């Protein structure tokens, strides 16, 4: 017999506080449908393909029994009924939301999600013989801390959820002193899961190299939580019916969005940017975008809120366009709806449109991640990524989704750097054009990657995908893996890394295209270079992208990132000279000199059908003087380096949390949990 | 009796911490001696005795009024370290403290009990973490991970920071265990004041018969505990020197750590849910996944936040006062270490009179401030911006800050001085910012411009008359820095 396709699990749509309010209790319980998977209970924990749940509470040193989804009565009733007092239900809730979030990413991106690897110190003498280690599952601790806090730990590859005695702002929602569990809130779980997934997709995004980076992590995590919430039509239906009629009040969805956040304390702060209650009228109002905010606000949550508000604005604009016809039909063209309750059919249709729009916006936001530079993301670049990803997949745009995004970002003063005018065309990253000669080299790489795509496409096991990908990048392929890849035991595979080194070495065009150094003169720029392997760089995030757009457009691409680091010595906020990272360890610095490592990088998107390089989205380490674009020698991108230096040493200090100020050395101090610090409130 | 003409304000250089003596004169004759706080971050008894002896000699063994702003080591430690000097051949007529020190007040008692729990929790958590750090099993395991040596180092730094917070707040016995409140405070209350203390409330305006023409306006601590918890202004507003958030109270952590028998400190779930098979426990404890265990995380996160909350709580309990020369309206502001919540509350005090031009009296007092004792050693949270410094508009403004990098916890150096406050203060005072010890302090982040140089260059902006006046009023020795505030500008 075939296995079922989904596992149905009951859970809260928001969090428990709404279940005790008469007006919301009936919508607060929904049934999550997560893809069916085999679960291993043999170790007393819950272990699926992506996650393992260990319900250990270190503050009371207690382990709780794990829920068994195969238990007959649990199975028959779509899981346990929502209950705050049963830790097994807590596990069920976390599992359902984490899996829902993962599946949304997989659907949007068209591939399996891999967690970020665990970095290890390569040091064969001390038995550390690996650079990194594959992580099959993240760990989930539903009751890990005793505070109003929850975080993703990149070091432990774990989600830690806290619980605490509440001290609510509004005592009618929660009895003061009752326990509040962060692992029972859809938004918190989705938010933290997104941090973990994003870390797997773009691991350098927790390095604050400009004011947007950490804010992006927060804002993006919140966007996913928010729009995932809106994809549940039942939740929307109720609200649409309640506010009966007044559909011109676009506030409705905004107010709802904010409510989601407010339910448990501080996650609401990100959404304060959307709007608030006007004290005079008592009505909820959308905030008027303040274009200066983007230049002034540096604290990551507050800044992330700007991103959330911008995307939410775009969502509202799209939704309005999508329901304009419904409004006309229901009001006979007058725009004024008849008295009394809304027709349930209309409510259904409106809710469906809202949830469909939310799904589209959610997927647009997620897909864009593949089109972002591997380091130093800014909101402007994210906008360009959204537009480019969407243009690639969806040829016609009748509801003007892309324009809605552009407008919303513009209103908040978020302009990408380096474009001349603001239009969809200019936001769309230009397609790469390189001369015939270098292009033939790209074709060789493209052929190789096409081969890779065939190999990977056969595998659905995430570890296989990881290992094949890693083998392709590094060339180290074990015997076992050779079998999987249908290679002869002695067949030589030239790694992607090596290929890039060999091919890109031959022309300045590649340096221009990527902003990175290949070949033997890297040391002039503070890049470690060996005579045999040339300038060192790392290849990351090699992934296969197979997507089908709504009009049947197929996107068939391979994407990967190249990252290169350079050591610079700064004096008086200016680049003075360079040094070689990882080699010049006993660097001697003069007074007022500071050593600094700068990472450049680029994301290369290769179209497999045409075997052409389509986009290069870069954060250049090297630049060419404008005058002699086609000749001349590359120069260190001092402007960017100095800007980053200034940010990390001055601006960011003011944006540090109280906790960091007292307990960490610098904003870049990641020995402690970076996301935990962001969430201290 | 003729009115007061000037006051000498002497800041003792005991190390980061406050120890002030104010002498009020009517022309040449000394009328009144006042002492505000007596503390420092650190220092041996023999080192500190030098200052205390000088102080005793300076005041001829008698203080008319002692003001203790709040119970932090850097404000009361001298009374502990040099208790013999203070309890012998030394008399004090009157002691003032904040209303929140009145142990007879039921509200205070209740709050102190709760707060005491928190302090105790902080001590226990801090001890647990230092103990864990000493455990080689942990450090060896930690160092095996990525960047392991650095991680261990950071953990140690965290533990030492936490320990500093602990020392700032309460006494520990020889083994470092929590004993109770600060000894210095106890000595002041029991041995020096002999429980004869005046507890001040915001809104009170005091005058003293020996001090004609002087009014003491009590600004803080606020009477609401909500304000006391507040370290920062509203997020995103321009009220403070950085954007941060209101701390949220959570008693769970303190409760569970002090192992109270109450329900709060125990597992929230029915026993029947416990995993009796020990299977998950064995899985969790597998040695190859040690790096994923979370036994310390809740302590680190909880203790760190608790330390910040406790610290803010006590700072906001500072007795803050504006001392006014009635005739000229000039004001000297001594806020203790008040943080934002306190500053904000001053503007809601219901005074029995209005300020000039119908302004709220607090704003008016700030407008007329000519001497400002910088709160909290120039840290980011010590001085409110819109509701504080920006209202200090007098062109005569002089400020004193009790910061000394040679005697401070190394872990605090990153928060003091705050560049934003520094910049505004130097600008407003035109360089008349007197710092306890400028050594190792820089004006900018790159540490290119020393604070001393910056201050000196800024003083060139003073006009000739101002320069002369400042030079005449300022005095400096190895033990102290002193500034004279004139009652009237003309003098």
Outline:
Chain A is of the alpha+beta class. Chain A has 21 helices and 23 strands.
Q: What do you see in this structure?
A:
The complex is a heterodimer of chains A (681) and B (491). Chain A is an alpha+beta fold and 681 residues long. In chain A, the strands form 8 sheets. In chain A, strands 3, 4, 9, 10, 11 and 12 form a 6-stranded mixed sheet that branches. Chain A is globular and about 75 Å long. The relative contact order of chain A is 0.09. The model of chain A has no long low-confidence stretch (mean pLDDT 84). Helix content of chain B is 36%, strand content 19%. Chain B is built from 16 helices and 17 strands. In chain B, the strands form 3 sheets. In chain B, strands 8-5-4-3-2-1-17-16 form an 8-stranded mixed sheet. At the A-B interface, β5, β6, β7, β9 and β11 of A face α6, α9, α10 and α11 of B.
Report the structural category of chain A.
alpha+beta
Assembly state: heterodimer
**Pairing-aware structural class of the strands and helices of chain B?**
alpha/beta
Q: Which regions of chain A have little confidence, pLDDT < 50, spanning 5+ residues?
A: none
Q: Tell me the number of structural domains of chain A.
A: 4
Number of strands of chain B: 17
Distance between the termini of chain A: 51 Å
Which regions of chain B have little confidence, pLDDT < 50, spanning 5+ residues? Answer: 234-250
Work out the radius of gyration of chain A.
26 Å
- Most strands sheet of chain B: 8 strands, mixed
